[in-house]
Fold each of these.
Amino acid sequence: MPLRPSMTVRVAPLVTGLFAAAALVWVVRMSVRNRRRAVGGYAGAESPRVTADEGPLDLWEVREPDEVPTDRGRLMPYELGRTPNKRSATQYRRRWSIGSSGGFGSGGIGRTG
């Protein structure tokens, strides 16, 4: 005589799945409600500058690191502190060039010329 699983063994995964789906729907609804209540979107988020005629402005600038002082000898990481940087004199954005390698581990042969 073959063994037949009981009714609870057959229904338990279905009930568990329905409970998990209902919990996910509830979490999404609560997060949408909280997002709508927040003033100006997420609290602490930096909002873009807006002009009356043009709308939001997309601002970017090229930055470069300050020179590391070499007159004091060897510097330890804790002596550097935060990495200071400044606005670059040329605002030219460096782009990928043909013949250069991709990211580390991408399998490219690297720069050949």
Note: The two ends are 78 Å apart (CA to CA).
Amino acid sequence: MVEQFKLVPEESIFFDLTPEESALLFYVLGLAASQSLSIDELNLLANGLFETAQVMFVIASHRSLINDVIQEQEDKQAAAKAKEEQQSAEKLQVEVKKLQDQINNLQKQIDLLNK
């Protein structure tokens, strides 16, 4: 079976930051990177980072799709197993009932013979 991708890493710098701090961090990085670059260099860097972000979005969505498919398969298997166990339990109950009926019939025959 395919291993699921981690939804949450064990450790990450982003867990220590609030959403506002993350936004501020990227804002400062953007300002710092743009200070010494020409317009053409800035365009190239921004487009490159944008492309990088798009690739990361595709990878994240594909991993999410894989996780969803795996979870759906596991849910179906669990449901099938539960249904199978229920049917097995019902069959056992029917067998127990048949055996109880046979015991009752045998007891009646024994009672008739003892009279």
Note: Residues 39-114 form the longest helix (76 residues).
